[in-house]
Every structure is written in structure tokens, then in C-alpha cells.
TrEMBL record:
PROSITE patterns: PROKAR_LIPOPROTEIN
Signal peptide: 1-22
GO cellular component terms, A-Z: membrane
Residue ranges of domain FMN-binding in the record: 37-112
Record has Kinase as a keyword: no
Keywords: Signal
Protein name as annotated: FMN-binding domain-containing protein
Record Pfam families: FMN_bind
One GO molecular-function entry: FMN binding
Length: 114
């Protein structure tokens, strides 16, 4: 009986650890942040599902449209893929706008941290 109880206790602890580790590092929800781009502040919305970055949308900006399109098409998918802004390189020719989006995403994720 003691062995069974010990085994059940171990399984319970392992299941709690598994759930905690697999749930991601962010709280689910929608978060906004702002960062300074080349021509304006850039406002983004970050959606977290199952503890992971699911979507990033640029809500407001006054950047050059072709430049921000490059950021949307290259930088944002890399952030989602890496689940972080760390080691995500700025888009060539759009470094200020890229840094503005990275700053905005970091600000949004501050509210999502567990």
C-alpha cells in the first residue's frame, strides 16, 4: 500500500510539472505595447494562446508603408517562431521600424509574463 501511495504521489508531482512546463511562459490574453519607430510610435497587439505568442498585429503607425510591410512579413513571423524578441534581427533597410516593433512587443509581453 505504501508503494502504491508513493507511486501515486510521484505521478501527481510529475503531472503538475508537465502541465506547468507545457503551458508556455505567458498568460493567455491580448496585450498592447508601443515602441518608437523611424517616423512615429508603433502600436502592436500581441495575442497569447496556450501560453505562447500566437499572433502579432501592427495596430497604428505612420511609418513608410513598404518598410512596415517588410517588418510585418519578416520580423513578426520570426518573433512568433522564436517565441521571443531575443536574437531576432532587424529587417535590412527597416532597422528603426524593426526596433520600434521589437520594443512594442516587449512592452506588450511584460503584461503577459507569468
Amino acid at each position: 500500500m505504501k508503494k502504491l501511495m508513493r507511486l501515486m504521489s510521484i505521478l501527481m508531482v510529475l503531472s503538475v510539472l508537465f502541465v506547468a512546463c507545457s503551458s508556455g511562459k505567458y498568460k493567455d490574453g491580448t496585450y498592447t505595447g508601443e515602441g518608437k519607430g523611424a517616423s512615429s510610435n508603433i502600436k502592436v497587439e500581441v495575442t497569447v494562446k496556450s501560453g505562447k505568442i500566437d499572433n502579432i498585429e501592427v495596430l497604428e503607425h505612420k511609418e513608410t508603408e513598404t518598410i512596415i510591410d517588410g517588418v510585418k512579413n519578416e520580423l513578426i513571423p520570426n518573433i512568433i517562431k522564436k517565441q521571443s524578441t531575443e536574437d531576432v534581427e532587424a529587417v535590412s533597410g527597416a532597422s528603426s521600424s524593426s526596433h520600434g516593433v521589437l520594443e512594442a512587443v516587449n512592452q506588450a509581453l511584460e503584461g503577459a509574463k507569468k
